[in-house]
């Protein structure tokens, strides 16, 4: 199983990842991105959409 890791130092909270998630597994908060691993289908769309390359997949 893969899980995403969000680098909070690189993330600028632009919401690009939130907008492309087909399962609404990401939620934009005021100072962080909330991630619900139960909803995530590991499609990788969030990582591709991130302009700061702040999202990576981990095993």
What does this structure look like?
Helices cover 17% and strands 24% of the residues. It has 59 residues and is an alpha+beta fold. The chain has a single domain (3-58), classed as 2-Layer Sandwich (Alpha-Beta Plaits). The strands form two sheets. A two-stranded antiparallel ribbon has the order 1-4. Strands 2-3 form a two-stranded antiparallel sheet. A hairpin with a 4-residue loop joins strand 2 (26-28) and strand 3. The chain is built from two helices and four strands; from the N terminus they run E-H-E-E-H-E.
What is the compact description of this entry?
With 59 residues, this protein is α+β, with helices and mostly antiparallel strands. The chain is built from two helices and four strands; from the N terminus they run βαββαβ. The protein has helices spanning 16-20, 45-49, and strands at residues 3-6, 26-28, 33-35, 55-58.
What secondary-structure arrangement, pairings included, does this model have?
Layout: E1 3-6, H1 16-20, E2 26-28, E3 33-35, H2 45-49, E4 55-58
Antiparallel strand pairs: 1-4, 2-3
């Amino acid at each position: 199983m893969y899980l995403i890791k969000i680098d909070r130092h690189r993330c600028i909270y632009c919401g690009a990842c939130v907008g492309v998630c087909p399962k609404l597994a990401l939620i934009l908060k005021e100072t962080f991105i909330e991630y619900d691993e139960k909803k995530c289908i590991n499609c990788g769309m969030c990582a591709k959409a991130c302009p700061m390359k702040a999202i990576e997949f981990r095993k």
